[in-house]
Design goal:
With 226 residues, this protein is of the alpha/beta class. It has 9 helices and 8 strands. It folds into 2 domains: 150 residues, HAD superfamily/HAD-like (Rossmann fold); 65 residues, Orthogonal Bundle (DNA polymerase, domain 1).
Length: 226
């Protein structure tokens, strides 16, 4: 429960928002496609896959045969769970920003379409877990992979109000998921979504550096308590 009406809850996407996962994700996709005997694009041609649910991305690459896409996802997880998840790096300024938000009494949560097991392991590995009151992600069976459904689950599970919550993410899926619940959204341009994508999906704010999050959420706190 919120300790006081003015305290905000901030939901953070993981990939492309807290950490840059490009090498681990694209390498694991390449591994899966190679195992299937399919053409293997260069890593920079697979950056569009960072953010959306991966099953959908594999369907786009492999066609409408969901069986092949599910097999590809299985191969992907084989590589990603073994080594890909740690081929990752924290964006400059993220630890300092999270610490500053904690000191200002913001409650922080992770809301990612990535399987929750992987999200926890990544946050532990990079010493970020202690910043968050809760880490929420999808299940291996596909449950909660939709960002709107995930946000609804977090709001209910944590008994927090949408009007006191902000979503921070780098792709349209984060922004649209927030809008389903009337949540303010902050699009980060340093991730893998373009400014055009973020604007088009209706982001309330767009920032270019992690350090700007503090100013945006402070302004939003004032807006909602007037």
């Amino acid at each position: 429960m919120l300790r006081k009406k003015s305290v905000f809850n901030i939901l953070f996407d993981l990939d492309g928002t807290l950490t840059d996962p490009a090498s681990g994700i694209t390498g694991s996709i390449q591994y899966a496609l190679k195992k299937l005997g399919k053409p293997v694009p260069a890593a920079d041609e697979l950056l569009w896959c960072i953010g959306p649910p991966l099953l959908g991305s594999f369907i786009k690459m492999l066609g409408t045969d969901s069986g092949k896409a599910e097999t590809a996802l299985s191969f992907y997880r084989e590589r990603y769970s073994a080594e890909g998840k740690f081929k990752n790096k924290i964006y400059t300024g993220i630890p300092e920003t999270l610490q500053g938000l904690i000191e200002q009494d913001f409650n922080l949560f992770v809301a990612t379409s990535k399987p929750q097991v992987f999200a926890n392991e990544i946050l532990v590995h990079f010493n970020l877990l202690h910043f968050f009151r809760g880490v929420y992600g999808s299940e291996f069976d596909g449950a909660l992979v939709d960002k709107g459904e995930l946000i609804a689950y977090i709001l209910k599970k944590e008994t927090i109000s949408a009007k006191n919550t902000i979503m921070v993410g780098d792709r349209s899926y984060d922004i649209l998921g927030a809008k389903k619940h009337g949540i303010y959204s902050v699009g980060v341009s340093y991730g893998y979504g373009t400014k055009e994508e973020l604007i088009g999906s209706g982001a309330d704010y767009i920032i270019d550096f992690p350090e700007e999050i503090m100013g945006v959420v402070k302004n939003s706190r004032q807006d909602r308590t007037r």
